[in-house]
Write a structure and sequence with these properties.
Two copies of one chain form a homodimer. Chain A has twelve helices and 14 strands. Chain A is α/β, with parallel strands linked by helices and 365 residues long. Chain A has two domains: 240 residues, Type I PLP-dependent aspartate aminotransferase-like (Major domain) (Aspartate Aminotransferase, domain 2, 3-Layer(aba) Sandwich), CATH 3.40.640.10; 108 residues, Alpha-Beta Complex (Aspartate Aminotransferase, domain 1).
Chain lengths: 365, 365
């Protein structure tokens, strides 16, 4: 079988895939409502929040759009912290819907510089919200969200968090860190196929929502809340994904969130030390390296596309390319969700065999 | 096993459910691209179109929002033909995004009156687009889309069609009828779980898109087109639903579209004659009665919620309630997708047993 080691979709355990194959039920039935009630309660435990948590049928990008259109009005000034493709995507969505985005950009591979954020909050008038990518999937960097959130709250701004590839894998105590809207997606650390975005909405976010004038219908939190009061969704949900999520959440709670976070930390370390043992270098500074995705610099002279092809065809391992201007310059190992150190060992072993074939001598180190 | 006879989600054949349980693959891989190419080509055959056809991860309502935001600008005048809950939903979405909607409403249970549409097109200046629900799921009415489209094109307006519960089940030759954007959803006649909206985009719709100023990102046709050129989707798709759709479309093409349409016509007739044989009356005029959903007037004195409960608990048959002001006044039998006359016979037999228990004497007829 192929080893899928991209940062999403992630491989699903057999129990989860079995749930995907369940026959359809009425999404307005007590059976569905009972499942939704448990799923929502379990999500809240893993989000570490007492805030509202909603399921929206769509990809993570749909979830980002939901965050934007539910909390902002055209013309609102938003400080957007970006150091990668997903930070840029959050910016683009926000601009498309007419907000006045003040981008604060950092080199790809670097984290958000908290002091620069402080400076921006100090000097830039009328900022309404700060948006940040907790874990930048395109570069393998995890930002210091605890420090960022503490600063954003010191200045009493709304904090909108893309936690698509971190939540459920990397510690993100939503309430403790006062995050107002936090969004993730089923195909990441949750071990479930794509199709659902999940997000939390704080009291401050509800206040922002009440005056937010961006046009919205499908993603509208007011509708989501109204139907959640009867444990339903306003529109027909991806029922199979809810079945699967229901099973995956039980598995996650059985393992325990602290254990899941520790496992991802071990797996992340294994990926980084494995890569370095081959003589390769990491894109991200290790102090900020992500425990869910590792971005590796393509060694000089090695065609990374060719490398991924050899891994795929000769080792049945699927890694991910770089994105945007990093295409061909890096490759990425996804290690979130259903993953252990053993899976990473396989990747490192395969790289050790494949790299010399492509002319990389450093692999002998 | 429960017989799910609601107008979506519809039951899925075992082959389709098996496909839902397939392990994840990279949505940027050749394997996925090959599948997307076949799915798109097969969808075009069943849409009877040479237009672009896209898959969007979301519910049918998300697909409706995609139609609106991709073709219109705030302030555009739109003639909206409505005679049920889904016609109203299309109106609401269009209004939320700032269009100037001219609603042309008909009684629920009645079809769109084509002469009234002619009158409106004649008298109402500056109409840019006409929107219509081909098959009104809330009332079990199929509108005369051939006549409506011919009229709309006589006046050279854009035609936006909600065909969520008709396409693939009821004849809708997209190109022959000059429909500009037509939207459907996976959980309807396609025999696939919910999670995907599918839609076609004509050349005229592309022209409208080029100047359409409603804000959009997630649903943007330009992005969909750009990625479709490499047989991908811009954002992570509901991969499992694409697996399932791939299998279902092959099954549909094997049966053949004319046979599928004929089967739905037979099933629709069986539902209507069965219901009448029990002494019950139909909400819709039979000349316009839908072949995918039948709305039945609750007999005087019978609590329709209680009736559905008895059917569910004693006969393992799940029917649908009425919507909006028809709650408690009608119940609905869904018969689209994986359904034959035998399935309808079971429903009628169960109704025959259940109705007298609730005090309906006409059932003896």
């Amino acid at each position: 079988m192929e080893e899928l080691r991209i940062p999403g979709p992630t491989p699903c355990p057999p129990e989860v895939l079995k749930a995907m194959a369940k026959q359809m039920i009425n999404h307005r039935s007590e059976e569905f409502e009972g499942m939704m009630e448990a799923v929502t309660a379990n999500l809240k435990r893993l989000f570490q929040t007492k805030n509202d948590v909603f399921l929206l049928t769509g990809s993570g990008t749909g979830g980002l759009e939901a965050v934007v259109v539910n909390t902002l009005s055209p013309g609102d000034k938003v400080l957007a912290l970006s150091s990668g493709a997903f930070g840029e995507r959050f910016i683009t969505i926000t601009q498309k819907f007419g907000a006045d985005v003040v981008p604060l950009r950092f080199d790809w591979g670097k984290p958000v510089d908290v002091e620069a954020v402080r400076q921006a909050l100090k000097t830039e008038a009328k900022i309404k919200a700060v948006m940040v990518t907790h874990n930048e999937t395109s570069t393998g960097v995890t930002n210091d969200l605890a420090a960022i959130s503490s600063l954003v709250k010191e200045y009493d701004k709304l904090l909108l968090v893309d936690a698509i590839s971190s939540l459920g894998s990397i510690d993100l105590p939503v309430d403790k860190w006062n995050c107002d809207v936090v969004v993730t997606a089923s195909q990441k650390g949750w071990m479930v196929p794509p199709g659902m975005a999940m997000l939390s909405v704080s009291q401050a976010a509800w206040k922002a929502h009440a005056v937010a004038k961006m046009p919205r219908f499908y993603w509208d939190f007011t509708q989501a809340k109204k139907y959640q009061d009867k444990q339903q969704t306003p529109w027909t949900p991806a029922v199979s994904v809810v079945f699967a999520l229901s099973v995956a959440l039980e598995m996650m709670l059985k393992e325990g969130l602290p254990n899941i976070i520790a496992r991802h930390a071990r797996v992340g370390r294994a990926a980084r030390s494995g890569v370095k043992s081959l003589g390769l270098s990491l894109l991200a500074d290790e102090d900020y390296a992500s425990n869910t995705v590792t971005a590796v610099n393509s060694p000089a002279g090695v065609d990374s596309e060719k490398l991924l092809e050899v891994l795929r065809e000769e080792h049945h391992i699927e890694l991910a390319e770089g994105q945007a201007h990093l295409v061909g310059k890096i490759f990425r190992i996804g290690h979130l969700g259903w993953v252990t150190e053993k899976d990473i060992e396989k990747v490192i072993k395969a790289l050790k065999v494949a790299l010399p074939k492509l002319g990389f001598v450093g692999a002998a180190v």
